[in-house]
Design a protein that fits this description.
Blueprint: E1 3-4, E2 20-22, E3 27-29, E4 43-47, H1 52-62, E5 70-74, E6 97-99, E7 105-107, H2 109-117, H3 123-129, H4 132-148
Parallel strand pairs: 1-7, 4-5
Antiparallel strand pairs: 2-3, 4-6, 6-7
């Protein structure tokens, strides 16, 4: 199983989190035993439930046709354990992740494109976004948003609930 990424930070060029990896290609294999059980016909979207903008967007997606086959997972919910899902606990807070039905991971803009593919209303946007020029601009925009997201207002009590606030600086990775 491989993953795709937008390289939110220079460190994301390193293979994701894996039990084994091919360092030459930047692909990783997520341990089979750590994979969550999931229906073959759906995806899992990992999002920051404390981020106002992120939550509003996910709430919108939940109302769309096709969303019934999508599991939306709040990574800030009590009891969420990224490692039990085969996710790197730091990286999952840096960018949105989607686990495809086949177990492959999509990160950042690629995660949004994968999510859009599951909803008929957004399929054209997904197709257009896969083209090089739109994808380039989407990635630039997403990197800017991802860098600013920790500073955006939080839902609830904010930082005392969010593991994101205590993450090491990007330079450390």
């Amino acid at each position: 199983m491989s993953w795709s990424s937008d390289a939110v930070a220079p460190s994301s060029e390193v293979p994701y989190t894996a039990t084994a990896f091919d360092a030459g290609t930047g692909t990783g294999r997520i341990g089979e035993s750590r994979m969550p059980a999931m229906a073959q016909s759906g995806i899992r979207v990992y999002f920051d439930g404390l981020c106002h903008l992120c939550s509003r967007e996910i709430d919108h997606y939940r109302t769309q046709r096709g969303s019934e086959r999508i599991a939306f997972v709040d990574i800030t919910a009590p009891g969420f354990d990224p490692e039990s899902e085969g996710l790197d606990p730091v990286r999952v807070h840096r960018a949105m992740h989607v686990r495809r039905a086949d177990g492959n991971m999509a990160v950042g803009v690629d995660a949004f494109i994968e999510l859009w593919e599951w909803m008929p209303r957004y399929r054209l946007a997904a197709r257009v976004s896969r083209s090089p020029v739109p994808r380039f601009f989407l990635r630039v925009g997403y990197r800017m948003f991802a860098a600013a997201r920790p500073y955006l207002p939080k839902r609830g009590r904010g930082c005392e609930q969010s593991p994101y606030c205590g993450l090491p600086d990007k330079k450390d990775h």
